[in-house]
Amino acid sequence: MEKHLNGKVPKVINGTLSPSETAQTPGMIRKPAIHKESTGASKIWFGTVTCAPNYKGPPHHHGEAETAAYVVSGHVRVYYGEDFKDHVEAGPGDYLFVPANTWHIEENPYDVPCEQFLTRGPDNIVVNME
After folding, report:
1. pLDDT, tens digit, 9 for 90 and up, residues 14-66
2. What fold characterizes domain 30-128?
3. β pairing state of 60-61 and 55-56
């Protein structure tokens, strides 16, 4: 049976790891749970992200990685497009998708933190605009 697993087996990760284990954007704290270092995953990054109250982050994108998020609490705005004039806003119970290589800015314009489950594939790539 082991030969069918190629040496890989299911794993349980008890909670998230330190934010220092993954790439970050100022004003947002990403904590990995499932990623290359914790599981050997090669096509997915999964964890949590907290966006501070009343904070607007810098422009960035995630390279070849597509992003999907589920908003647990609070709200997040994602600005995109020419001069970041367009935006979408997601709140509790909403799912959010950001395509690969899409420059964007995340903002939490409210007085409470925004908590999200976040996944990216193939990894948590973060390219901050200089």
Report:
1. 888 888 877 777 778 889 899 888 888 889 999 999 999 999 999 999 999 99
2. Jelly Rolls (2.60.120)
3. unpaired
